[in-house]
Amino acid sequence: QVQLVESGGGLVQAGGSLRLSCVASGNIFSIETMGWHRQAPGKQRELVAYITSGGTTNYADSVKGRFTISRDNAKNTVYLQMNSLKPEDTAVYYCYVVQYLRGTSWGQGTQVTVSS
Question: What are the phi and psi torsion angles at 104 (to 5°)?
């Protein structure tokens, strides 16, 4: 099993920045994609961003131009740099990884709160 540990969440004022990190450990072979989902209270979980093993990135329209996803394969770590944060970004952010022929694993989440 893959263990995913997120860090970097917290409270930030609107317009500020935050960087989330997620470290994968355990059975970490064949990781194809690493990324982030988020879920705000009363709302559906949504994809925020992901990055493939080849470095291709995708972002939700709501975060394009503000968030940047990156990964360090040597450290089995994915990052989410969040700039120009808005109150609407307040949510629990969940790290995930997709492994070839093994499906998806999830972290336990880290809270991001953006005050106005």
Answer: -115, 140
Query: Token pair for residue 3?
Result: 């263990």
pLDDT single digits (tens) 58-97 = 999 999 999 999 999 899 999 999 999 999 999 999 999 9
Token pair for residue 86?
A: 């808005």
Percent of residues in the chain assigned helix, strand, coil, to nearest 5 = 5, 60, 35
CA distance 54 to 33: 9
Which of 88, 95, 97 is closest to 109 using CA atoms? 95
Tokens of 6: 């997120």
CA distance 1 to 33: 16
Q: Is the pLDDT of residue 1 over 90?
A: no
* For residues 39-65, average pLDDT: 96
DSSP string of 42-58?
TS--EEEEEEETT--EE
Q: Is 2 within 8 Å of 28 (Cβ atoms)?
A: yes
What's the pLDDT tens digit per position in 72-82? 989 999 999 99
